[in-house]
Specification:
Layout lengths: L1 H16 L1 H7 L6 H20 L8 H9 L8 H12 L6 H12 L9 H23 L5 H21 L1 H6 L7 H6 L4 H6 L4 H21 L8 H23 L13 H21 L2
Length: 286
Amino acid sequence: MELASALASCESMIKQGSTTFYKAFGYLPSPRREAVFVIYAFCRMIDDAVDEPERAPYPLDELERSFLELERAEGHFIWSSLRWLFATFPALGQEPFLRQMEGQRRDLRFTHYRTMEELEGYCYLVAGTVGEMLLPVLHDRPGLDVVESGIYLGKAMQIVNIVRDVGEDRDRGRRYVPLELMARHGYSEREFEAGEVNEGLRQVIRELDATAREWFRRGLRDLDTYPPASAFSVELAARFYEAILDEVEGGGYQVYTRRAHVGQLRKLKLLAKIGEKYAPRYLATP
């Protein structure tokens, strides 16, 4: 009963923290579904340790120490949940979780990005690693090509986060939009700090949009190798997230004062469209 309660607590975290991911991955069969919830919950704790340390149950260093001594870790539902996760999916290793912590730790010392290369490295650490975590759960035999696709999908979602949260991040003293990209489109640091929405900013966002969509394309190229339920959930999550880019454009690229989100009607339409696509595969699965 203790494990059941711990897993339920992880589900509660994703339900409260991300309706997009909860909706998309809630269609998975057990135990894949519970495993995704555990991974989300722990990544949420890592993120909160940096962004909201006053509310986080552990500072990042303590979180990492307990993770490295997982068999002895107590005092929070996440530890028994993680022990269950690694026992249930033995192909999953600790390395992507440690790289995720490295990426979040970078936020404490590296807050203004200069190049797309720097930004892509960051996107890998904080989001591409999530793809590496999820693949042993969602895919039965992920080869190198599938792993690369999973990493691209995570990085694409992080670019969407960056586009959506430009204003929030600026208010926290962070600029993920690379300086070289701003310079290429004639958008200055002064304009960024002032929150000016002009053609320069629109061109910056459009280039980030194009990058994200290309990474989504690469991220979804191997879906036919997944079990049908996993492929459905992965594509649904990706399309929900990609739709945020449409909302940014539809909102006139006002990324400083408006946080773009996808409404329920749009999500229902995407659900129906993707559900229709996967229905024959479900019916063909014994």
